[in-house]
Structures are given as structure tokens and as C-alpha cells.
Amino acid sequence: MDSHEHPAEQTSHAEEGTFSHVVDSPASAAKTTRMMEGGDPATISPPACAPVLVSRLRATLRRLFFFGTVVLVNLLAVLWMADLFYRQGFHNSHYLLLAIFALLNGLLVLGSFHALAGVWDAFFSWRSVRITRLIEKQEGSLTHRYAVVMPVYNEDIVKVCARVEAIYRSIEVTGQLASFDFFILSDTTQLSLWVEEEVAWTNLCRKHNAFGRIFYRRRRINENRKAGNIGDFVKTWGGRYEGMLVLDADSLMEGRDIVTMARIMDASPRLGILQTPPKLIRGSSVFTRLQQFAMRLYGPLFIRGLNFWQLGQGSYWGHNALIRVKPFSEFCELPALPGKEPFGGKILSHDFVEAALMVKAGWEVWLAWDLEGTYEEAPPTLIDHLKRDRRWCQGNLQHLWLVFARGFPFPSRAHLFMGIMAYLGSPVWFLFLLISTWVAWDFRTSNLSQLPYDGYVAEYLGLSGEQQAWYLAGMVLALLFLPKILAYLGTLLHPRRRKQFGNSFSLTVGVLMEALLSALLAPSIMVSHTLMVLGMVLGRSVNWGNQTRETDGTPWLEAIRYHGPAIIIGLAWSALAWYVGESFFLWMSPILAGLVLAAVVSVVTSRTRYGRALQRHKILATPEELTPPEVMRLADGAVAAVDVALTAHAPSREGVIAAVVDPYVNGVHVSLLEPDAENMPEALMEKWLSEGPDALNKQEMAEVMYSSQAMLLMHRSVWSRPFEQMHLQWSRAVESYRTKLEDFSGN
């Protein structure tokens, strides 16, 4: 190990008066693998003799069958459309339309065939590939030690600690708690939240006697966002653990599934990353209920279909995944992209790249699609969802540099490509609609009639041009809705699963509502994604802020301002479509309605009161809502992080004020600081005392708060100085400790 001690050696019990002491790892720290006992980075590769779950030949045949079928179906659709254009007489734009259609329809076919592959895999379940089969009926203690890490960034720390407590207790029930340590890795920038995090962590550890098992550290310089946060953990402590379970601040996982994942990693020496498919929970608005219903009902087919072809060369989604530390440390260091942000610089969406690097190095990345007890939360409104998408859009489009990087296998390139097209597909769709409108407008204004060409379809199938167009539209609609229909019918015809979603009526209404609202939401999302991509092209980068997890709806003014471009485009496009012709207007009406009503749909779907009304009637219900899993119940009842005796929320002494005034909070804060290496900021201390907290800027206040001696002297000063020599806020904080006589007498 390096000069940093293991956290267990730095921590003693609360009654001994000390707490876990953590220091930042310097940027020049050696890789974890170079610190491990006898570990040579050059030898960190999967054991050649380790058992292989799926042979290379079988994996290749599956991928050839899956992608070959996708290409064949898409090619037939493109030829069908080309023949239709030929019957009409080729317009100059038809070549571009065909190219765009080939891309968009290819993505549609690819998505639909994931669901079809999932159905196939379910029907022939005895041929299904599950990595969990490696440890069926396996019991006993775990072979290695594992870390559960939860990065946080300006979060509600009480709720974060409630999730940590729930996971801790859930693992404790399995009897395997001794094999796990827990880390709250803070990149919080708000100073008062920093103090609240220290207090909440201390209370949590005291309640469960978990000092030496649950650790907290805050980085002083939060470089490279979440990837840097995890990287700092790996460099500092990763050498003591075989693997780390990476969570998000809103993640929940059942202890039994975490233990199962650890057993799989123990049993599979080739395994580098084991990803689980999280389910969305706690949706209160219509929008979040819509998302979690769709993911819960349709998601299993797509997830199973994804596993059908990716097998041991899968992807990593950034959280709710178990990662083997040694190869991650050695091979998954993110490269710096050429140029500056938004397209260059530090990679924002690190997870797909890390998985690709792991696979490139010869390690396996699996999706444990059949593990059920893994959960996360979603943004509460469409606008919050799109704000998060801005970050993901920039991160995913940076992968354009990496799709053709040397050494990546085909599955890794496919994952990167699909991630890129999740956002680049919107401007491509927008361009397709614009060109289609131009063709229709040009035909309308030119007063030309169609030339009576006969294509191959007319010659061999005897279809008219109108029939041929309707067949093509029907195929596109079938590809779009077939996965949903299959998932709906599979649930409706399965009594136990149907009951998990309420009943037949609520399930059917939920499916229809999801289809309608998704159709209305799609055009405004298309415009938003197009503007995001355009902003990147113009050189505008995004900030990586904290995620909004709770709100009581989007205000009308905010919705109109945010969706204003979509509304204006929708109104102008509607007028143009009506001028082109009534039939064209009707053809475009689903998209135009979504644009014109963007603000209305955004506001209505953001309301929690409508979500609660749907919940009462079990509309858009999910199994986790109707029968909450045990880890959710544990999180709902977790209160260990809150203690009136140790709090940074008392009246007149909150946050940074509590860190100075309250003896207990001050003691916790000082015990978590590094020993002072520089002179105390005496001038700043005096300014803070005499002029109050508002007299210092954030950097100046942080300078005082990072000095253990300064914080001790600040605490002594506010209690010993006369009130007239201090700012009023300090005297109020001290006075808040006075207790009225009747509080003791009970009167």
C-alpha cells in the first residue's frame, strides 16, 4: 500500500473520541495495482485456465444472427422505399432521404429486435445464458473483500445515509457483512452541506456501531467529476478490495443480490465488471410514473435481448455494478480527448468507455439481467430529465472519437454507437422531417403531377403507389409498437405477473396512456436534443450539476420559456403543413401536436397530484410500488443519520455556523481534518468573527474550515468573547443554547 493507511486502521470507536481520517490522493499517486502485494501490472490479465461461460464460436454466431437479421430487414425496407420514390419520379432530395431513412429505420429495427430477441430467449429459456448460473446453490463465506462506494455531490445527505443504512442492514441479514466496507465519497461543493454530511455520517456510524466499516471522505479538489471521485478511491484504498460496488446517490440494492454478485466475481476469475439492470422507483409525478412503468413492463424484454448478443462483452452503465478493482485500476484510466470541451477534453460519460477498455484488455463484462433487487430514482419532470440529458448528450457525443479506436471489439463499438445515436438520432430525425416537408412543399408549388413509372413492387406484387406507402408505414409502426404489444400480452396472459401491475384494466389503461403520452413527449424531446447537439457544434459546453430528485411540478412560465423553441417551430410548421395540403397536415399532425402542446404536456406530467390520483387507481403501477421490496422498506424507516443531540440543523446554528459554535459538531469536523501544514488564516478568522459569515466569500470560508487549529480557535472565541465584540449571528447562536427553567420543571 501507499502512504495512506487503510480506513479501518484510521478509525476508532466514537467513545474514544476520534473519527475516520481521510486525505486526498495526490494526482501523481501510483496506480493501485503497483501497490498490491506482489502485484505486477504487466501480469494483470484474466487467468487463461478460467472457465468460459460461452465459447467464442457461439458468441460470434449469436451476433451474426442478430445483426445480420437487423441489416437484412432494414435493407428490405430501404429498397421498398427506394422503389416507391422511383414510382413517383426521383426528386434530388430522395437520395438524402433514403440515406437518412436507412439510418433511422436501422435504429428502429435494432431496438425492436432487442425485444424480439428477449421474447425468443424467454421461450427457449433452457438455452438462455445467465452468468448467475455459475453460483447456483452455492453457500458459505465470501472469498474476498468488497467495497460499497456511493459518490455524492450536493445531495440530501439524510436520504443518502438512509440508503446506505438500508443496504448495510440488508447485507447484514445475509450474514456476509464482514466481507464489505462502505464508503460515502463526497464531492460536495456547498460548505454547509459538507458539515451536514459529516454529522449525518457520524450519527449513522454511532447508531450501528459501524466506525471502521462505514467511511466518509470529502475531496478538497473534485477533479474530473464522478470518474475522478471513483478514481481517487481506487488509488487510495482500492488495493484492499477485490471489487467495488459502484452506486449512485439514489441507488438501492438488496443485500442478497449484492452477495450474489460478489459470489459470481469470486467464482469467475475472468469477470471484470458485473452490471445489473436497475428499476425505477418512488415516482410521484405523472412523468416519473410513466418512466418507471415503461421500464418495468417493457424493459425486461430489451435487457434480455441485449444480453442475447453482447454476452461477456457487455457495457457498464455507471452505477449498480460490481467492478474488479485491479484491472479497472490498470486498464480503465480514461484518455484525454484531443481539443477542448465540448467535444474534447475530459470524457464526461465514462462508463461505456471504461467497459470497452476492460473488454479490450481481455476481461469480461456481463449483464446480470435476472437480478431483481436493484433500484434507482428518476428526474421528476420532463425539464429535469432534459437538463440531465444535456450532460449525457455531451458525454456520449465525445465517444465519436472512440467508435473507431484501435483494439475495441465489435460489441464495444456497437455500445458506443448506440449511445451516440441516442442523442444524434434526434437531429437526424428532425432533418428527415424537414426534407420531407420541403419535398411536399416543392411538389405543391411546382404544380407537377407524378410520372406514371412502375417499380418492381408494382410489377411483381401488383400494389398501387398508395398501397405501397401504407405497407411501408405499417411496417414502421409495427416495429415501433410490436415490442410494447408483446410485453403487454405476455403480462396480461400471465396471472401472477399481471397482478403485480394491478389488474387487467389498470394494466391496459397504463399501456394506452404510456403510448399516448410518449407520442406527445417525443417531438419536444427531439427539438431539445437537436438544440443540445447544435449547441455543442457551436462550442457550448455544459456544467455537471447535481440532479434534481424531488419537485412539486414545473411552473407554467418555466415550461413556456424552456419549450418556447419547440412551440414556435410547431406553430410555424403547422401553418406550412396546412398550406402544403390537408393530407400532409394530417400525416404530420402527431408530431405537430407534440410540438405545439409541449409546455402543456410538460406541466401536466410534472404534477404530483395527478400522479397520486393515478396511484390510487393503480394506473401506471409497478410491482415495487404495490409490494415494496424489503430494502425500500428499510430505507423508508432509516433514521440513524438524524439525532437531535448531534445536528447541524438547530435554529440559529445551521451548517457552517454549527461547525463553529456547536461543541459536538465542531469536534466532529475538526477530527476529520488533516493536521495543519500552514499558518492559520488569522485575518480571515477575525473578519468572520467580527463581520459575520457574509463577509467572507466561499473560498475564504473554506480556507478557515480546512484548518483544524483555526476551527478550534473560532469555537473558543465565540464562547469566550463578549457579545459586543462579535457579529450578531454568533451571539444569537450562543444564546440559542439557553434553556428556560420551565423546560426542566415540565410546566
Average pLDDT figure: 88
Helical coverage, percent range: 55-70%
Please tell me how large the radius of gyration is: 29 Å
In one word, what is the shape?
A: globular
Main beta sheet strand tally, sense and closure:
7 strands, mixed
Structural class from helices and strands?
alpha/beta
Structure, described:
There is one protein chain. The protein is α/β, with parallel strands linked by helices. Helices cover 57% and strands 6% of the residues. It has 30 helices and twelve strands. Strands 3-2-1-4-8-6-9 form a seven-stranded mixed β-sheet, with helices on both faces. A three-stranded mixed β-sheet has the order 5-10-7. Helix 4 links the parallel strand 1 and strand 2 (180-186). Helix 18 (564-580) runs antiparallel to helix 19 (582-596). It starts with 6 loop residues before the first helix and ends with a helix. The relative contact order is 0.11. The model is unreliable at 1-42 (pLDDT under 50).
What's the layout of helices and strands?
Elements: H1 7-10, H2 56-88, H3 94-123, E1 146-152, H4 157-174, E2 180-186, H5 191-208, E3 214-218, H6 225-237, E4 243-246, E5 252-253, H7 255-267, E6 271-275, E7 279-280, H8 286-310, E8 321-324, H9 325-331, H10 351-360, E9 364-367, E10 374-376, H11 382-397, H12 410-446, H13 456-461, H14 465-492, H15 495-500, H16 504-537, H17 556-562, H18 564-580, H19 582-596, H20 598-606, H21 608-616, H22 623-626, H23 630-636, E11 649-650, E12 653-654, H24 656-661, H25 663-671, H26 682-691, H27 698-705, H28 708-720, H29 728-735, H30 741-745
Parallel strand pairs: 1-2, 1-4, 2-3, 6-9, 7-10
Antiparallel strand pairs: 4-8, 5-10, 6-8, 11-12
Helix pairs in contact: 2-3, 2-14, 3-8, 3-12, 3-14, 4-5, 4-7, 4-23, 10-12, 11-16, 12-16, 12-18, 16-19, 17-20, 18-19, 25-28
